[in-house]
């Protein structure tokens, strides 16, 4: 309280209170909270004051209760939870664990069951303590006891969620139990049907939380819009999707940005992860920005595959922020070959007329054996030569010759393409007359510019739009509501100083100055609704 109230004189702490003291870092969290809302980590007094302010406001907004807890923060832990099930007759069992360490802003992103880290001894110890807690409070339903686990398999109680967790499907997959059915039975007063010895671990399950978020901004800032096209990959083996979303649904700044829970199950972890990779490639979401690129990169990352993870995984692996998939040399050539083949396929389709044999307009068939193309990717221009024979294109790029085969159903949102024996699932998200194409390849959306050789020569004479100087302006990185504005015209601000606070999805985000300067104008006030890219403040 002395810190939070900024008292200059500190009173002597009574001896009997000293044993309750904890040192930095600490976790400030909403006592009624969940889902990462109302949580802040503080490493010093200043961060504690800021954390207290933001956490209490988020807690009041999300839960109608601004009370907070302050507890010791354990650095670099794993987040592992135990699913429990109790009845009204004093019986309780634990249904194994879920690994939930892949998080951003204290919210889970990828979960799996079981954990690759736990051994049977630690699993049993955690499960027995979770059941002991459930019995001590006479808990009767499905619930989750959450723990932090350090590198030596020491585990620390975090909290108990007295409800069904978002990630419960992975537990259902490996145990064969329907948790919702069991909850209903317990609520009706029936005793549990299963003993602890009856609870198995069969196979492996992985869940990815598909969010309407931009993963390139702080690993996921909210995106809003209307789903113009939506198709779940439920046709694939071992895939389950839990979602209430459908085409035409609106994604709002006032609600949780989750689109769905994507779950895959396999006989082992390798199969479950491969099925997840395929499911993410086959997931069609148009109209809002989503985090599929980030999810796919996580599950193919070598550290994740080896099980070397903790709650700081994302910031450790991507210290400069998420940048999308980094193409290998072979993958780059594959993408260039696919883009070139798509371009030629579109051109050939445009040259065909329905029932042209009976048309009064004479059709002159183009005699082009080879297409000389200029393909731009990541500011590098490549000369590509493509030719086709039926469904197969022969593409020469950077000294390599690749064969690209597909049905070339250009009306389909998904396209299965074979490149020299390697099967890829791609999505052509957009194509413009000027040669710009957006292609989702290996989860990441790439901007590719394809032109014929002649068009590329003429394109050099076109004027380019000058990029905006963003050093003196602050724009909203996401849609949201302005909670507070801390400056006015004429104020001097320092680099990193808070300018305003924007709330989106009930999470508050502090917007800071990018440089030191004087405030020229303020374009927002508390209570305003702003969109992504809206101008907030200008500096001189």
Automatic annotation (TrEMBL):
Entry's Gene Ontology cellular component terms: mitochondrial matrix
Listed InterPro entries: ATP-grasp, ATP_grasp_subdomain_1, Biotin_BS, Biotin_carboxylase_complex, Biotin_carboxylation_dom, Biotin_COase_C, Biotin_lipoyl, CPAse_ATP-bd
Residues of the Lipoyl-binding domain: 464-540
Protein name (database record): Propionyl-CoA carboxylase alpha chain, mitochondrial
Primary site of residence: mitochondrion
Nucleotide-binding listed as a keyword: yes
Domain of life: Eukaryota
Top class in the EC scheme: ligase
UniProt keyword list: ATP-binding, Biotin, Ligase, Lipid degradation, Lipid metabolism, Magnesium, Manganese, Metal-binding, Mitochondrion, Nucleotide-binding, Transit peptide
Annotated PANTHER family: CARBOXYLASE:PYRUVATE/ACETYL-COA/PROPIONYL-COA CARBOXYLASE (PTHR18866), METHYLCROTONOYL-COA CARBOXYLASE SUBUNIT ALPHA, MITOCHONDRIAL-RELATED (PTHR18866:SF33)
Essential cofactor(s): biotin
Presence of the UniProt keyword Metal-binding in the record: yes
Coiled-coil spans in chain: none
Record's catalysed reaction(s): butanoyl-CoA + hydrogencarbonate + ATP = (2S)-ethylmalonyl-CoA + ADP + phosphate + H(+); propanoyl-CoA + hydrogencarbonate + ATP = (S)-methylmalonyl-CoA + ADP + phosphate + H(+)
ATP-grasp domain: residues covered: 1-188
Domain Biotin carboxylation: 1-319
An annotated GO BP: lipid catabolic process
């Amino acid at each position: 309280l002395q810190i939070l109230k900024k008292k200059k004189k500190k009173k002597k702490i009574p001896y009997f209170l000293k044993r309750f003291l904890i040192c930095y870092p600490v976790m400030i969290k909403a006592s009624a909270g969940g889902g990462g809302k109302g949580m802040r980590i503080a490493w010093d007094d200043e961060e504690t004051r800021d954390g207290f302010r933001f956490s209490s406001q988020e807690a009041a907004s999300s839960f109608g209760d601004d009370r907070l807890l302050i507890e010791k923060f354990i650095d670099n832990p794993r987040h592992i939870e135990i699913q429990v099930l109790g009845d009204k007759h004093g019986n309780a069992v634990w249904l194994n664990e879920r690994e939930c360490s892949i998080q951003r802003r204290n919210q889970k992103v990828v979960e799996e069951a079981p954990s690759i880290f736990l051994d049977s001894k630690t699993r049993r110890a955690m499960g027995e303590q979770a059941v002991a807690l459930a019995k001590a409070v006479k808990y009767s339903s499905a619930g989750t006891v959450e723990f932090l686990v350090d590198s030596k398999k020491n585990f620390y109680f975090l909290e108990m969620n007295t409800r069904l967790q978002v990630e419960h499907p992975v537990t259902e997959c490996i145990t064969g139990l329907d948790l919702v059915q069991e909850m209903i039975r317990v609520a009706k007063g029936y005793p549990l049907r299963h003993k602890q010895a009856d609870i198995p671990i069969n196979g492996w399950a992985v869940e990815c939380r598909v969010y309407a978020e931009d993963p390139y901004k702080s690993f996921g800032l909210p995106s809003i819009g209307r789903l113009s096209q939506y198709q779940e990959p439920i046709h694939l083996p071992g895939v389950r999707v839990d979602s209430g979303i459908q085409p035409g649904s609106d994604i709002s700044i006032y609600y949780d940005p989750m689109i769905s829970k994507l779950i895959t199950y396999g006989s082992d972890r390798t199969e479950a992860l491969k099925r997840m990779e395929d499911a993410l490639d086959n997931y069609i979401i148009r109209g809002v920005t989503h985090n599929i690129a980030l999810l796919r990169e996580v599950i193919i990352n070598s550290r994740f595959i080896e099980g070397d993870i903790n709650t700081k995984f994302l910031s450790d692996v991507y210290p400069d922020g998420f940048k999308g998939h980094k193409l290998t040399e072979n993958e780059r050539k594959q993408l260039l070959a696919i883009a070139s083949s798509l371009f030629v396929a579109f051109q050939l389709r445009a040259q065909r007329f329905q029932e042209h044999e009976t048309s009064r307009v004479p059709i002159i068939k183009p005699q082009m054996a080879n297409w000389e193309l200029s393909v731009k990717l990541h500011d590098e221009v490549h000369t590509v030569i493509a030719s086709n024979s039926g469904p197969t294109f022969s593409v020469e790029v950077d000294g390599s010759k690749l064969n690209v085969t597909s049905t070339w159903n250009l009306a389909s949102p998904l396209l299965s393409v074979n490149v020299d024996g390697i099967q890829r699932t791609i999505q052509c998200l957009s194509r413009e007359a000027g040669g710009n194409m957006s292609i989702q390849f290996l989860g990441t959306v790439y901007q590719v510019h394809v032109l014929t050789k002649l068009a590329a020569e003429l394109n050099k004479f076109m004027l380019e739009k000058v990029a905006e100087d963003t050093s003196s302006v602050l724009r909203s990185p996401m849609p949201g509501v302005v909670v507070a504005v801390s400056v006015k015209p004429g104020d001097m601000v320092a680099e990193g100083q808070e300018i305003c606070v924007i709330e989106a999805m009930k999470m508050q985000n502090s917007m800071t100055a990018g440089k030191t300067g004087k405030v020229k104008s303020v374009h927002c006030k508390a209570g305003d609704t702003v969109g992504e890219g809206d101008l907030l403040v200008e500096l001189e």
